[in-house]
Specification:
The chain contains 4 helices and 2 strands. It is mainly α and 97 residues long. The protein has one domain: Winged helix-like DNA-binding domain superfamily/Winged helix DNA-binding domain (Arc Repressor Mutant, subunit A). Strand 1 and strand 2 form a beta hairpin. Helix 2 crosses helix 4 and helix 3 crosses helix 4. The longest helix has 14 residues.
């Protein structure tokens, strides 16, 4: 069986992969949310953690979180942090529920 999202399996950045690093990181975090490792109302790992753990720049971490925000998977509350959204707020890549 072919696994379409290898990032959720490996949870690591593949520097040889032509896909941009921020999209790889977004896929890793998306997989953690979809598998229930990160649950609604739980804070997303901090930007500092993402930078240190995955070896990415702050800009890359921010872009990855923005992808998840655009998909409705996370919400950012100013001065509080970024949290996993309730499942009903999630949007598919096509934009529909």
């Amino acid at each position: 069986m072919l696994v379409s999202n290898v990032y959720s399996m490996a949870d690591e950045i593949d520097r040889w992969n032509p896909e941009p690093v921020y999209l790889q990181l977004a896929a890793i975090l998306r997989g953690q949310i979809e598998r229930g490792e990160l649950v609604p109302r739980q804070p997303l790992p901090s930007e500092s953690y993402l930078v240190g753990h995955y070896g990415v720049s702050r800009g890359t971490a921010r872009r990855a979180v923005q992808v998840l925000r655009d998909e409705g998977l996370v919400v950012t509350i100013p001065q509080r942090g970024t949290y996993v959204s309730e499942r009903r707020q999630w949007r598919t890549k096509s934009g529909g529920p």
